[in-house]
Specification:
Largest sheet of chain A: 3 strands, antiparallel
Order of helices and strands of chain A: HEHHEEH
Strand content of chain A: 5-15%
Number of strands of chain B: 0
Radius of gyration of chain B: 35 Å
Number of domains of chain A: 1
Order of helices and strands of chain B: HHHHHHHH
Number of strands of chain A: 3
Helix content of chain A: 55-70%
Shape of chain A: elongated
Largest sheet of chain B: none
Structural class of chain B: mainly alpha
Structural class of chain A: alpha+beta
Number of domains of chain B: 2
Strand content of chain B: under 5%
CATH class of chain A: Mainly Alpha
Number of helices of chain A: 4
CATH topology of chain A: Arc Repressor Mutant, subunit A
Largest interface: A-B, 19 and 21 residues
Shape of chain B: rod-shaped
Radius of gyration of chain A: 16 Å
Oligomer: heterodimer
CATH superfamily of chain A: Winged helix-like DNA-binding domain superfamily/Winged helix DNA-binding domain
């Protein structure tokens, strides 16, 4: 799959994960690379981009017996952006699905 | 590649790209190594799964705003586009003149055909000839009119497509220069359905054939009637 194309989808997946709960970078990377065929490092540039756009914020959390973890949290703007993007994606997928189904029937 | 090699390449690539807050980024990958190695992976395995550090560094580039460059880009792009617009406008004007000329031929051929058949001779424009020849020539003119009309419509539609395609190109150039999202390019060729295309093509072909046959036979009939290959002299057309 095209890397730019993938990046947009991964962005949406990250949004979706963070919408449910705050997560640290490694956690997100692990979760996504288990389900989607991407290299582990791809998530970090996207997280940084989201942060620079003000869609997520970070905070550090001390863990027992390990380094402090940097947690990512959706901002208000981020939550709004996710809900909008989510709907757009669902509409898009629905349209594509209908198109493909039509093509099959011909 | 072990952890140190990976981190060094990443750091150097990030430095080369002039990215701010490199420490922040490096910490994130450092952490990744620690977590992953705690899960029992070797340094080599972790760096392999992370991906090419040079490629990763590149992915950070896009996020850095480059305001200085952006302004310059916009200026030069706008300047270039204005020059290109002038050139393209000239091409478009000549194309539209061509389409108008073809349309004019269509209209005048249709008029000539109708006048010939209706035996109407407004302002003595139509030279003397037997009605037989007139009808054959009229058929020729009418098919020429259809031919030219379809060509003009074709030309007009294609022209419209070209303009909208160029407008899209223009818009995208500016969007690119200001780092905004671009739209997909539009086709420069005509977007009509296969069925319509075949119908138009068939009509053009048929009218072309009729046109040629009508004019040749019109000439033959007239030459036979006037008993001269240059029948227009016999009928005194140009006097």
């Amino acid at each position: 799959m095209n890397i730019q194309y993938k990046k947009g989808v991964i962005e949406l997946c990250i949004f979706s994960l963070l919408y449910k709960s705050d997560r640290y970078g490694y956690d997100i990377s692990e979760y996504l690379s288990k389900h989607i065929d991407i290299s582990d490092g791809t998530v970090y540039p996207i997280l940084r981009k989201l942060k620079s756009e003000g869609l997520v914020t970070t905070y550090l959390c001390e863990e027992s017996g390990g380094p402090p973890r940097k947690y990512y949290k959706l901002t208000k703007t981020g939550r709004d952006a996710y809900l909008k993007d989510r709907q757009e994606w669902l509409d898009f997928v629905y349209t594509v699905h209908e198109l493909l189904k039509e093509a099959e029937n011909e | 590649m072990n952890k140190k090699e990976f981190m060094d390449i990443l750091k150097n690539s990030l430095l080369e790209s002039g990215i701010n807050d490199i420490e922040d980024i490096l910490n994130e990958y450092e952490e990744h190594f620690i977590f992953k190695m705690a899960d029992g992976f070797s340094e080599e395995e972790v760096s392999l799964k992370l991906g090419d550090p040079k490629e990763l560094a590149k992915q950070f580039i896009q996020d850095e705003p480059k305001k200085q460059l952006k302004k310059k880009n916009r200026f030069f792009t706008a300047l270039g586009l204005v020059l290109l617009d002038i050139l393209i406008a000239c091409v478009f004007i000549s194309l539209s003149v061509g389409v108008i000329a073809i349309a004019a031929i269509a209209v005048s051929s249709a008029a000539a055909g109708v006048l010939l058949i209706a035996k109407m001779n407004i302002a003595s424009l139509i030279p003397v000839m037997p009605y037989k020849s007139a009808v054959v020539f009229a058929v020729g003119f009418l098919s020429l009119a259809i031919l030219m009309f379809i060509t003009a419509v074709y030309g007009f539609m294609w022209f419209k497509q070209l303009i909208s395609s160029y407008a899209r190109f223009h818009k995208n150039c500016m969007a690119k220069a200001s780092n905004e999202a671009v739209y997909p390019a539009k086709a420069t060729f005509l977007q009509i359905s296969g069925k319509l295309k075949r119908a138009l093509r068939g009509t053009i072909l048929i009218s072309l054939v009729i046109f040629i046959i009508a004019f040749i036979s019109g000439y033959a009939i007239s030459a036979f009637d006037a008993k001269s290959f240059e029948f227009w002299h016999v009928w005194e057309w140009f006097q």
